[in-house]
Amino acid sequence: MSAGKKKITKAERLRLLQEEEERRQKEEEEARLRFEKEEQERLEIQRKEKEKWRLLEKKDLERRNEELEELNLLEGCFPEAEKLKRETRALAQWKHYIQCDGSPDPSIAPEMNTFLSLWEEEKNETFEQVIEKSKLVLSLIEKLKLILLETPLCDLEHRTVVQHQGSILRLQDLLSLKVDVATELLLRQASTLADLDSGNMEKIIQDENVTLYVWANLKKNPRYRSVKFSGTQIGFEIPRILATSDVALRLLHTRYDHVTPLYPTTVTEEEQVPTAVEHLKKEEPVEKAPTNEEKVLTAEKAIIQEDELEPSQEREFSLVQEEEINLVALEEVEVQRTSDHEDENLETTRYELEMQLLSEAVSAAQLHLVENIVEMPDTKEDYEVDLCHFSTLGGVYHLDILELPPQYKPVKGWVLVEIRQEGLQRFTYPPETTDEPDPENAFPPIEVTLEVHENVIFFEDPKVIRWDAEGKLWRTDGISSIFYDREDRLITFSLDTLGPVALIQDAHVNMPYQSWELRPLDVNRVVLTVTTLFTELQIHIKENLCLLGSVRLQGQEHQSHLEGRWMTPVPFILALKEAGLNIFPSVYSHFYVVINNKVPLVEVKACRQMALLSPAFAFCWSKWNMACNSTRVVFGVKEGLAEDAEGHPWSLLMFSGDRAQMLRVRENSEVFSEALKEDTEFHSTLYHMVKDFASPGAMERVRRADCRFIDSVCHMLLATRVLSYS
To answer: Coiled-coil ranges per the record (predicted)?
Structure first.
């Protein structure tokens, strides 16, 4: 061992170990004290947060009744709007009555019966005449459907629903019959209308609602197997048996669908709201107060009686008489005041009761818009089309093989024609019984080429379905070799047998939405933007009208025939659906779309209050709406009146139907939290929540908004169900 190194003694080693142990214990003690201090601070912060939360809840509870009363006054716009709608419907009925244009009122059964009976009696109408008459028929059908859709359930009696649906079916059936009769009249003239080159007859008659393509096989040339209508790519590839038969091919393309059965609208007793207003109107006061004229006559009689008294009596009783007259006058004035007060109370009671009943009817109708059916629709066979999942677009293509009726024969200046009692007859293809050894080769499928209507948007290749007249349903079997030319909008397929066919698309192709935004534009005018996987729609709303502002498909502007047309909400929604722009979930949609379905009452309350605030505030989608449960909704909000509103950040708001709060979490946060935003409080309504940070001008615009505008915005929010389907 070197002399420079000292050997550590046992005592020193023990001392060092003791010092190390003391240092370790000291560090552990310091760590324990630090942990206890931090824990105490955390508990103190938590206690303060709980105390703050409790005080905020207490404060919210104290002012809840006051806030709900103010909200109830603001929501009086909904029954007021419904009252205006009823007055508008009554006025429209009166205007129709005084017009005396010969068209029936579709809501009055005797007028509809007379119209149908008179039209049934009209004979030998040409196709052009039937098309012209069909404009009125389609208008009547549309009016009847709107009556069933727009009228609140409480105002629809079951017999009224059955009556209107019966009128619709009778109009549809009679129109179809008239088309067949007109087609038969046209085919009787086939020989006189024959083409000089082919020797066969070809006719195209076009209208805004109907297009008729007719081809009559007069030459029966077995090599003439391809039928193409001039100027189009539409046509048939027919087998040999049809090319050599006395047949005609008819393609009737109707822009409307009178094939799919009507879904019945049922009105249960629970949905009926008692019309107590009618009982109240029957009540009349038992006694009437004297009028002003009666009071004047009473005073005059008193003066005359006073003049007739003798002078001695007059002097003797003058003071007494004056007092009596004054007492009578005071009593009459008091009676008049009491009567006026009773009349005012009665009128006030009538109005309040009417508004209450209207409010209940509106609330029931709004809840109906967000209703979800519990049981999934049942399709019995694999080939049966589920019309809750798919929707027909572009109308119906009626494909028929018709027996050629006897032709006109000119004889010595006369025209002879054989009239068959049975009328227009279908040619059965393939025949029900055949002696052919291989029927599949003898009766091959018929190839058909159709043009997809230009006003319809298909986001995916359309599917072809055919109508089963016996089963009263659409089916997918019996159709093969489907090819869709997207550029030319032509679809080609083969059919085992001809009949009505239609094109369908998934009704939920644009659901769920990727985002949505509701933004004010001007006084009583907003724009609702809904962005889906395929498209972006901008819907403008003003007063009680809606307008399709723009349609973007894959980032490019698409010109729609609906742009520039203002319509009330229900016809507007129907028009968008018919154009393939369906962003309106049905009661069955939750079976086909993965969504965070919200409690209906919460959704209705949120949409009503967003509509109330829409004149001055913007609302938007939030990803955190999917993170919270079904009893809460989360969305962005900011004031939309300021010039630099576009640059203002969105605040996130959570609403449970009876409590609104601003959230501390931001849209770009990583984790969702229900923590309250700093310097904010709870409120019972969205209105009072945004009032805390809103400008006076914004709140003034909210209070002065038009009731019809608020009702339309609410209807569109509920119809699109942006809170559940985004």
So the answer is: 9-48
- Residue 604 CB neighbours (<10 A): 22
pLDDT, tens digit, 9 for 90 and up, residues 325-382:
555 555 565 556 556 566 667 777 888 888 888 888 888 888 999 988 888 877 778 8
Do 600 and 371 touch, CB atoms closer than 8 A? Answer: yes
Task: For the chain, give the percent of residues with pLDDT over 90.
Answer: 50
Separation of alpha carbons 600 and 368, rounded Å: 9
| CA gap 518, 528 in Å, rounded | 5
Cα 665 from Cα 649, distance rounded (Å):
13
CA–CA separation, 615 and 467 (whole Å): 48
SS (H, E, C) 139-193: HHHHHHHHHHHHCCHHHCCHHHHHHHHHHHHHHHHHHHHHHHHHHHHHHHCCCCC
> Would you tell me the crossing angle of helices 707-720 and 569-578 to the nearest 10 degrees?
30
- Output DSSP code: residue 264: P
pTM check: above 0.70: yes
CA angle 579, 582, 588 (to 5 degrees): 135
CA dist., res. 491 & res. 501, Å (int): 12
Give every CB contact of residue 78 below 8 A, 6+ residues apart in sequence: 359, 362, 608, 707, 710, 711, 714
Q: What is the C-alpha to C-alpha distance for residues 465 and 455, in angstroms, rounded to an integer?
A: 20
Q: How far apart are CA 501 and CA 499, in angstroms?
A: 6
Please compute, for residue 570, the number of CA atoms within 13 A of its CA located in the half-sphere on the CB side.
14
- Computed on alpha carbons and rounded to an integer, the radius of gyration of the chain in Å comes to 39
Distance CA 702, CA 227 (A): 63
Both tokens assigned to 131 = 């098309």
Q: Which two tokens stand for residue 385?
A: 């089309």
- In this structure, are residues 431 and 443 in contact, taking their beta carbons and an 8 Å threshold? yes
CA–CA distances in Å: residue 401 to residues 148, 214, 229, 341, 446: 37, 10, 16, 77, 11
C-alpha 164/C-alpha 711 separation (Å) is 26
Instruction: Give the pLDDT confidence of 212-264 residue by residue, as tens digits.
Output: 999 999 888 888 889 999 889 999 999 999 999 889 999 999 999 999 988 64
Q: Is the CB of residue 466 less than 8 Å from the CB of residue 479?
A: yes
Is 725:513 a contact under the CB 8 Å cutoff? yes
CA distance 126 to 408: 16
Q: Within a 10 A sphere around the Cβ of 420, how many other Cβ atoms?
A: 11
> Over the stretch 182-210, which tens digit does the pLDDT of each residue have?
999 999 888 888 888 888 999 999 999 99
Over range 304-313, report the average pLDDT.
42
Report yes or no: 452 and 490 within 8 Å, Cβ to Cβ: yes
**CA of 204: how far to CAs of 196, 215, 317, 425, 441, in Å?**
16, 9, 105, 21, 32
Chain center to CA of 160: 22
Query: Please, what is the Cα angle at 463 between 461 and 469, to 5 degrees?
Result: 160
The pLDDT of residue 574 is: 95
Tokens of 70: 């103010």
Instruction: Please list the residues that pair with 660 across neighbouring strands.
Output: 655, 683
Quick one: pLDDT band at residue 409, thresholds 50, 70, 90? confident
446-451 vs 490-495, strand pairing mode: antiparallel
Q: If we measure between CA atoms, which residue out of 346, 341, 385, 335 comes closest to residue 504?
A: 385
Residue 240 CB partners (closer than 8 Å, separation 6+): 222, 225
